[in-house]
Every structure is written in structure tokens, then in C-alpha cells.
Specification:
Radius of gyration: 13 Å
Strand content: over 45%
Shape: globular
Order of helices and strands: EEEHEEEEEEEE
Helix content: under 10%
Number of helices: 1
Number of strands: 11
Low-confidence stretches: none
Largest sheet: 7 strands, mixed
Distance between the termini: 35 Å
Length: 123
């Protein structure tokens, strides 16, 4: 198993959740790890990505100021702290690694994906 997401669940609007993505070592070092989400009937959306070498980050416009992506190199884990959650954040959240070309926040750049973790925000 290369990518394992955890931490999803159901939370009320305004609440918080923290997602985790455990990344196999050879996928983690010196590259990007991204979080993406997809709601039923909608296109996949970039949420946040981080360059594991220097920690630089990129956020999707809809989550800026509410979500934070950070990493723990010792654990080969990338986290997504989600605060002030809204019903429109409801989606399946996927972690991706193994970027080959493209930008860190582009889903098409990644070759490895986790199975996803469901986040549901009730109003």
C-alpha cells in the first residue's frame, strides 16, 4: 500500500477535522504530496499541496484561510487541518503522491492515489 488516508468523518458546519496521509517512503521524499477532493456530480478539485523538501504550500481558492497542509518527515505523513468547515466542503478527499511533471496542485501530475476518506459537513 502506497498511500493511506485517514481522519474523515461527519462534522457540523463550523467544525474541524484533520486528515492524514501516510506516504510510502519512496514516494515521499523530495517531491509533492497533494490533497484533492471530489463531490458527487462535480469535478475533482485541488485542495492543498506541499513540497516535502522545503514545505512550500499551495492552496485552492475555496479553502484558503481555513485549511492548512503540513508534514511530518519522520513519519512520512502529510496532514490536512480543516477548520471552519462548510457544507460545500463535503466530498471524498484523496491524497496523491509521486508527481511526474506538472505542478504540485495539478491532479494530472500524480501517479499514485489513495482510496480516499469521506468528509461530510452538516448544516
Amino acid at each position: 500500500v502506497q498511500l493511506v488516508e485517514s481522519g474523515g468523518g461527519t462534522v457540523q458546519s463550523g467544525g474541524s477535522l484533520r486528515l492524514s496521509c501516510l506516504v510510502s517512503g519512496y514516494l515521499y521524499g523530495g517531491n509533492c504530496v497533494g490533497w484533492f477532493r471530489q463531490a458527487p456530480g462535480k469535478e475533482r478539485e485541488d485542495v492543498a499541496s506541499i513540497y516535502t523538501y522545503d514545505g512550500s504550500t499551495v492552496y485552492g481558492d475555496s479553502v484558503k484561510g481555513r485549511f492548512t497542509i503540513f508534514k511530518d518527515n519522520a513519519k512520512s505523513t502529510v496532514y490536512l487541518q480543516m477548520n471552519s468547515l462548510k457544507p460545500e466542503d463535503t466530498a471524498m478527499y484523496y491524497c496523491a503522491a509521486g508527481r511526474e511533471g506538472g505542478l504540485c496542485n495539478q491532479a494530472r501530475a500524480y501517479i499514485s492515489w489513495g482510496k480516499g476518506t469521506q468528509v461530510t459537513v452538516s448544516s
